[in-house]
Each structure stands twice: as C-alpha cells, then as structure tokens.
Amino acid sequence: MGLGQGLLLRVAKRWIAGTDSASAIKEALKANQRRMSVVLNYLGEEISDPSIADAHMREYLSVQKAISDSGIKGCVSVKLTQFGLLTDETGAIKRLAEVIGRSEALGQMLWIDMESSRVLEKTLQIYLDVLPSHPMVGLALQSYMRRSAKDLETILGKGAKIRLVKGAYKEPPDLVFNNRAEATENYSKLMETLFKKGDDFVIATHDPKLIDQAKELANSGKARFEFQMLKGIQDGLKDKLVQAGYKVGEYLPYGSQWYAYSKRRISEHPSNILLLLRSLF
Ligand SMILES: Cc1cc2nc3c(=O)[nH]c(=O)nc-3n(C[C@H](O)[C@H](O)[C@H](O)COP(=O)(O)OP(=O)(O)OC[C@H]3O[C@@H](n4cnc5c(N)ncnc54)[C@H](O)[C@@H]3O)c2cc1C
Questions:
Q1: What pLDDT, in 10s, does the model give residues 132-156?
Q2: Which of 10, 80, 83, 179 has the most beta carbons within 10 angstroms of its beta carbon?
Q3: Catalytically annotated residue among 95, 102, 163, 265
Q4: Range of the domain at 266
Q5: Total tally of structural domains belonging to the chain
Q6: Where on the phi/psi map is residue 118: left (φ > 0), alpha (ψ -120 to 50), or beta?
Q7: Cα separation, 187 vs 166, whole angstroms
C-alpha cells in the first residue's frame, strides 16, 4: 500500500470496521458496548468470477459464526452481486441459500442490501422467492426509486422485513426522483406506510428530520422498528437515541475493498473532504 492509500485508510477507518473480520468483530463488540446491535457487511460487489463469489460466501459463513461465538448482538447484510448475480443467477441463489441456512442455524437475521437498478428486479424477485420459507430475511428498499411505493405495498403484503434507505447509486434520471429533496419527501411517505402497515422494520437514515418524524409516528402506533446508521456517521445522535430507549443498529462494512466504499461516503457529504484534508497535514 502506497503512502497516499495508507493515509486514506487512516481516514477511511472512520467508516469501515477494518480490512478483515477480526477487526470487524472488535468494532462490533465496541458497538454492542454502546448498546447498539450491528450489521456486518463484507465489502465487494459485481463479482463475476465464481471462485471469488464462493470466497465471499465463505467469508459470510465464517463471520456469521464469529458473531455467534463472540456473543455479539448482530447479523450480516449481503449484496447479491457479490455472490455473482450479474453473471450467474443460479450460483448466486445457491450461495445466498448457504448464508440463509447459517443465519437460521445461528438464530440471526439476514439482510439483503439493495444495489443498482441493474439488479433491482432480480433482487426483489429472489427475495420474494425466499421470504415464505425464510421470514428472518430482510431487504433494503430505496426511497429515491420512483417505483418504491408500489414495491413497498407488494412486499409488505407478503410479510417482508424492510430496511428503508434513501439510495446510494448513480441511476438513470427517469427511474429516480429528481433530487435529494424529492427522495427525502418520498422517504417520509414510505415511512408513514411502514408505520401504518408494517412491523419489525428498519429506519436507516442519518437525516435528523426523518428520525424526528419516525419518533412521532412511533408515538402514535405500536409497530416494532429499529434505527440503523452507518459506522462513523451521526455518532452523537446514535447515543442519544439509545439513551432515549430506541433500538439502534450500526452498519459496519469491512474488508479489503474499502476504497470504493469510502469514496462513496466522502462524496455524499462535502464536510468529509475537510476530514480527509486535515488528516494529511
Ligand atoms: C444501515 C444502512 C444500510 C444501507 N443500505 C443501503 C442499501 O442496501 N442500498 C443503498 O442503495 N443504500 C444503502 N444505504 C445508504 C443510503 O442509501 C444513503 O446513501 C445514506 O444512508 C445517506 O443517506 P441519508 O438517509 O443519511 O440522508 P442524506 O440526505 O444523505 O443525509 C442526511 C443527513 O445525515 C448526515 N449525513 C449523511 N451522510 C453523511 C456522511 N457521509 N457524513 C456525514 N454526515 C452525513 C448529514 O447530517 C445529512 O444532512 C444504507 C444506509 C444505512 C444507514
């Protein structure tokens, strides 16, 4: 690793739980000590080589066991393209089935991240196929997608467990809302639907206004839900929510593919550029 990458890794450690599973488990224990559950994600996506897709599956099987052996309150979240979905759907489904099997044997939840629109339809279909026999599997739904209100109605009707996010990919303009404000407005609407018709869902955002709205909706209903936020973002707010008695989870990405992930977090929020610059001087 060059000097530039070494410095960047120092900054990136704010958002990633290390480059290997041992570091991720340590960070998970720290989050548990702050009374947050954890969702571990092994970084990497769009894998086409079956041997790498197998390696990703084995990594999850091993970290699921480590979560259990270490007494950690948490689970994993997977991306279907890291199991090869783009090039070999059957293989990806088989790998997913292995990880679901392990999560059930260990009594853990299993989350499926939602990726770009290239795989949205397939991801949704695979989720709907596994859901009837695997109710402990949950799916992320992105509020920036215009179709999400309809998708939400469909999958809620089938008892889905939803993690509502704004969405993180660059998408063709006709598929998504025009800007962040509209995606936020849609988040607010989808969240109302979740509190009205859903149960056992996740409000995954760092947006203080949406979090306040969720608290209000929670006051007037009985739905079970949890807040989830990414490692290194809104740490003060996470602690406040825990202290106020809300369930909070921290999403902990880890692995050697930390560079692309960190770039996404930096570009999402300009103040992170300052963090980066400060670390250089
Ligand atoms: C638990 C979890 C799981 C996720 N899973 C997925 C997934 O499966 N698929 C997917 O497409 N996306 C996923 N995301 C990412 C998500 O789509 C957004 O890109 C990300 O959460 C930022 O959106 P936001 O809701 O926080 O709102 P934003 O509008 O981006 O931010 C709202 C406020 O939060 C704070 N904030 C947000 N980001 C940062 C930052 N990087 N640094 C500092 N402050 C910040 C700021 O105060 C900002 O004003 C996930 C996010 C979370 C929390």
A1: 999 999 999 999 999 999 999 999 9
A2: 83
A3: 163
A4: 1-16+257-281
A5: 2
A6: alpha
A7: 7
